[in-house]
């Protein structure tokens, strides 16, 4: 088999796998969101006889005193706050870890890597948050999301920082720039590719998070978009049309974000891995 034919075969197999793994389930969600209660209960891939999407959307949005709108607000606020802290903290940490080289550096790198390996502990985290008075608060949940996202984002920033020459730092210091001025006015703007990667990947992860809001931010008024799936599935046990409509509504924002910024994600990941 020639190299060109082998490459074409691999591409065809990859496309078919993506169709099976992603597009067929997504098509299943869309089709059943278009149906009424009776048709959707069959859970089939058949095209609906009567389109009820708009009615389903109205019923889902107004259910439980507009819970879905509150959930979108909570998830958006959680995502924005977490991303701001992640970008600033991880960019600073990546900058320092890449530039310094002393005895403490290997141990700090080990701690960062251990954050990717060691699983989070639910009960001790609840105990700590409750002791700080942050349990069931947005602040506490933001701290949890930031802590879980720190290791991966620090590694991305540290890898990308290797592509920025140290002469840039030295020139800025010679011109009289202090530490904060050097970082925020010179280094941080140069990190735009990897920052775009961090923003998109972390936004999708945090916006779609189910377990952390469930454990650390309980309560009907504190519901996030993923928790509405749990609530709808318990309220509408047999009304799959409403459940799939809810899935469709909360899937579209991160999906569109990922589609539009896909090239920037790849660019940031590639630069960090090759030059790091």
Automatic annotation (TrEMBL):
Residues 72-261 form the ABC transmembrane type-1 domain. The chain crosses the membrane at residues 12-34, 71-95, 107-129, 141-161, 182-207, 240-261. It holds the Pfam family BPD_transp_1. Its main location: membrane. It comes from the Bacteria. It is found in: Cell membrane. It is a multi-pass membrane protein. Keywords: Cell membrane, Membrane, Transmembrane, Transmembrane helix, Transport. Gene3D superfamilies: MetI-like (1.10.3720.10). Belongs to the binding-protein-dependent transport system permease family. PANTHER family: ABC TRANSPORTER PERMEASE PROTEIN MG189-RELATED (PTHR43744:SF12), ABC TRANSPORTER PERMEASE PROTEIN MG189-RELATED-RELATED (PTHR43744). This is Carbohydrate ABC transporter permease. It comes from Paenibacillus chartarius.
């Amino acid at each position: 088999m020639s190299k060109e034919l082998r490459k074409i075969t691999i591409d065809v197999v990859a496309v078919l796998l993506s169709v099976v793994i992603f597009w067929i389930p997504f098509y299943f969600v869309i089709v059943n969101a278009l149906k009424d209660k009776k048709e959707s209960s069959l859970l089939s891939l058949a095209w609906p006889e009567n389109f009820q999407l708009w009615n389903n959307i109205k019923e889902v949005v107004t259910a439980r005193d507009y819970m879905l709108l509150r959930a979108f607000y909570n998830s958006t606020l959680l995502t924005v706050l977490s991303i701001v802290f992640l970008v600033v903290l991880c960019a600073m940490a990546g900058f320092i870890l890449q530039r310094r080289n002393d005895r403490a550096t290997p141990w700090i790198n080990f701690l960062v890597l251990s954050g990717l390996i060691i699983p989070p502990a639910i009960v001790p985290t609840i105990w700590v948050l409750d002791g700080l008075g942050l349990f069931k608060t947005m602040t506490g949940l933001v701290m949890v999301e930031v802590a879980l996202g720190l290791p991966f984002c620090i590694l991305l920033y540290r890898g990308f920082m290797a592509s920025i020459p140290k002469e840039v730092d030295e020139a800025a210091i010679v011109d009289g720039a202090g530490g904060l001025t050097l970082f925020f006015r010179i280094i941080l703007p140069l990190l735009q590719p990897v920052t775009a990667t961090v923003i998109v990947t972390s936004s999708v992860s945090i916006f779609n998070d189910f377990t952390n809001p469930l454990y650390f931010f309980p309560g009907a008024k504190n519901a996030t978009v993923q928790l509405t799936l749990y609530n709808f599935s318990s309220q509408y046990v047999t009304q799959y049309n409403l459940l799939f409509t809810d899935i469709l509504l909360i899937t579209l924002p991160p999906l569109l974000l990922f589609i539009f910024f896909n090239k920037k994600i790849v660019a940031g990941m590639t630069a960090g891995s090759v030059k790091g």
